[in-house]
């Protein structure tokens, strides 16, 4: 596992694949952030991943600080997850009938997150939030949804809307193809702003089906809820008969064994009504879920009138990977995540300070991000006010030195329990050079 000893200069095989990919796939990628548009340059096509290391098609090695945007909490190709996947695959790939792994995975989730009595399995975080939203609308008979600027819940039409600052702004679609009628059902509010929340409910309270929030946002960088904000979400939704959806797709089973809920504890006034999960619970395979009380979940087909389905939902290989991953998330794993995250974040902060680069590190459990700006980041407007160009220089110097950060300054840095001392040392070696590049 020796780190790449030389600087990575050229990546001709990645460049060639990107050219071919562009001919047959928009932008050459199957998810936009992978195209490196925010930082420039050529995305690396990865051929192999093991533990904390990625190897690209040119044979360059990188310490991975993306971890597939969260799922790879145990590291890549973890032996126990690999064995579970191989074992499951020998029994067939997809049945289109119920199977035991689905029950085991559901039981594992329900056991961890106390307010969740039942879950429905789906294949992506987007499906989870889309379905939770439909259930909330079906259960309340209302159509409006409140979301927060800077929170990402997948590419669900009404949840793609994000507005500029301002209270209770009726959102414009953030993407072509989202009908105005859909965006008009969405009220976008600034995060961490209780007054804006209360004002929106005073005006539209009887039409609001739900508030959806990232349990602790990680998609504008890591911006944890201010003290009392989650309580306020619970109080205001209760007062107006709206549901509260806590999106734990990113934080679930990462911030703690029970996700952000396990870390922050139950809000004053009771738990959120619905939770969404993804990423870690699929162990790198397409598995996600939404869940809540048995009473609420009973509104779903076949028991109730809210329709939701999926050919590959509860796929036996994906659920085997998810189950093995969750079972592998021992207290020691969470300790290692904390230790690695703090070592890397502290070193990044030290290096940036030494290079005179203003920055702020924010945390949600072992999830953290580094903002290239001074002062606390409380909402999306704060997150936007960063030196994005400096992050781009920082990113590319890390990449040249064999460390793959998220290619955007709005993302959390993800570590895994497989980030051993070797991998961490490699990151620490690169950081001062990258900080110097950022300061240029
Ligand atoms: N919700 C949150 C909080 C997310 O971070 C993401 C993805 O990053 C999603 C939902 C969508 O999940 P997926 O990409 O699996 O559709």
Topology:
Blueprint lengths: L11 H13 L21 E5 L2 E4 L4 E4 L14 H12 L9 H13 L5 E5 L2 H16 L3 E5 L20 E2 L9 H4 L2 E4 L4 H11 L3 E7 L14 H11 L3 E5 L11 H6 L9 E4 L10 E5 L1 H4 L18 H13 L2 H24 L5 E5 L2 E5 L8 H5 L3 H13 L2 E2 L16 H19 L1
Parallel strand pairs: 3-14, 5-7, 5-8, 8-9, 9-10
Antiparallel strand pairs: 1-2, 2-3, 4-11, 6-7, 10-11, 12-13
Helix pairs in contact: 2-10, 3-10, 6-7, 11-14, 13-14
The structure holds pyridoxal-5'-phosphate.
Pyridoxal-5'-phosphate binds next to helix 4.
Organism: Rudaeicoccus suwonensis
Enzyme class: isomerase
Protein name: Glutamate-1-semialdehyde 2,1-aminomutase
Task: Report on the architecture of this protein.
By secondary structure, the chain is α/β, with parallel strands linked by helices. The chain folds into two domains: 12-64 and 330-439, Aspartate Aminotransferase, domain 1 (Alpha-Beta Complex); 79-328, Aspartate Aminotransferase, domain 2 (3-Layer(aba) Sandwich). It has 14 helices and 14 strands. The chain has an eight-stranded mixed beta sheet with strand order 4-11-10-9-8-5-7-6, with helices on both faces. A four-stranded mixed beta sheet has the order 1-2-3-14. The two termini are 32 Å apart. Bound molecules: pyridoxal-5'-phosphate (PLP).
């Amino acid at each position: 596992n020796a780190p790449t000893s030389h600087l990575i200069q050229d990546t001709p095989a990645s460049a060639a694949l990107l050219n071919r990919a562009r001919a047959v796939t928009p932008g050459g990628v199957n998810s936009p952030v992978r195209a490196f548009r925010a930082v420039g340059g050529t995305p690396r096509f990865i051929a192999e991943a093991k533990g904390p290391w990625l190897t690209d098609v040119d044979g360059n090695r990188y310490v991975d600080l993306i971890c597939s945007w969260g799922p790879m909490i145990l590291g890549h190709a973890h032996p126990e997850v690999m064995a579970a996947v191989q074992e499951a695959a020998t029994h067939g790939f997809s049945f289109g009938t119920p199977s035991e792994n689905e029950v085991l995975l559901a039981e594992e989730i329900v056991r961890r997150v106390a307010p969740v009595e039942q879950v429905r399995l789906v294949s992506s975080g987007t499906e989870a939030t889309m379905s939770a939203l439909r259930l909330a609308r079906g259960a309340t008979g209302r159509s409006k949804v409140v979301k927060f600027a800077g929170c990402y819940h997948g590419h669900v039409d009404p949840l793609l809307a994000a507005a500029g600052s301002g209270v209770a702004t009726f959102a414009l679609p953030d993407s072509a193809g989202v009908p105005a009628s859909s965006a008009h059902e969405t009220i976008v509010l600034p995060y961490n702003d209780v007054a804006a929340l209360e004002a929106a409910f005073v005006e539209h309270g009887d039409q609001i089906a739900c508030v959806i929030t990232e349990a602790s946002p990680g998609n504008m960088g890591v911006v944890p809820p201010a003290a009392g904000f989650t309580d306020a979400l619970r109080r205001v939704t209760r007062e107006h008969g709206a549901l509260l959806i806590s999106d734990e797709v990113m934080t679930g089973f990462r911030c703690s064994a029970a996700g952000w809920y396990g870390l922050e504890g139950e809000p004053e006034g009771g738990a959120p009504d619905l939770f969404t999960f993804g990423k870690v619970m699929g162990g790198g395979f397409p598995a996600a879920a939404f869940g809540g009380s048995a009473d609420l979940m009973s509104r779903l087909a076949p028991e109730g009138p809210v329709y939701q389905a999926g050919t590959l939902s509860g796929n036996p290989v994906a659920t085997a990977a998810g189950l093995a991953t969750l079972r592998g998330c021992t207290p020691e794993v969470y300790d290692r995540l904390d230790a690695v995250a703090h070592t890397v974040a502290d070193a990044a902060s030290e290096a940036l300070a030494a290079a005179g680069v203003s920055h702020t590190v924010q945390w949600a459990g072992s999830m953290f991000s580094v903002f290239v700006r001074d002062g606390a980041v409380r909402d999306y407007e704060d997150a936007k006010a960063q030196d994005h160009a400096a992050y781009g220089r920082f990113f590319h110097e890390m990449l040249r030195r064999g460390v793959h950060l998220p290619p955007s300054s709005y993302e959390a840095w993800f570590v895994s329990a497989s980030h051993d001392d070797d991998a961490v040392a490699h990151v620490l070696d690169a950081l001062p050079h990258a900080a110097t590049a950022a300061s240029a």
